[in-house]
Amino acid sequence: MRRIAFVIGAVIAELSLAAFAGTIHGKVSGVSGESVVYVEAVAGKTFPAPTATITMDQKGLMFAPHIAVVQQGATIEFLNSDSVAHNVFWPSVGGNKKLTHNLGTWPRGEKKAFKFDNPGVIPLLCNVHPEMSAYVIVSPTPYFAMTKDGEFKIENVPDGAYTVTAWHEGAKSKSNPVKVTGGTAADFTLSK
Ligand SMILES: [Cu+2]
Question: How far is the CA of 34 from the centre of ligand 1 (A)?
Answer without folding.
Answer: 22
